[in-house]
Amino acid sequence: MQPKTTKHTTRQLRVDPHLCEAHALCTELAPDIFDLGDDIATCEPDVDQTHWDSVEAAISACPRQAIGWVSD
Ligand code: SF4
After folding, report:
1. CA dist., res. 33 & res. 8, Å (int)
2. What DSSP string describes 3-62?
């Protein structure tokens, strides 16, 4: 299920660098959003709705639960 958003809230995607262990599942599931650096993944914080499904799949697949949404 996708998190709800309203006109008054925005959310940004975040990878916790302290949790990420570079398993790369996120880059496989959402290559337009995630990028794998030397030892951690990074992501585009502002995600277009067209990518929400792949991002949610990456969030579910991450074995470290390192990916999440941050609301304003
Ligand atoms: S799947 Fe999770 S642990 Fe693996 S690279 Fe992506 S954020 Fe890091």
Report:
1. 24
2. PP--TT--EEEEE-TTT-----HHHHH-TTTEEE-SSSEEE-SS--GGGHHHHHHHHHH-
pLDDT tens digits for range 8-37: 558 999 999 999 999 899 999 999 999 998
Q: Is 67 in the pocket of ligand 1 (CB under 6 A)?
A: yes
Answer yes or no: is 44 within a domain.
yes
Whose C-alpha lies nearest to ligand 1, atom 6?
26
pTM of the model: 0.85
CATH of the domain at 46: 3.30.70.20
Q: What's the 20 CA to ligand 1 centre distance in angstroms?
A: 5
CA-CA distance, 35 to 42, in Å (whole number)? Answer: 5
Q: Which tokens go with 51?
A: 């990518």
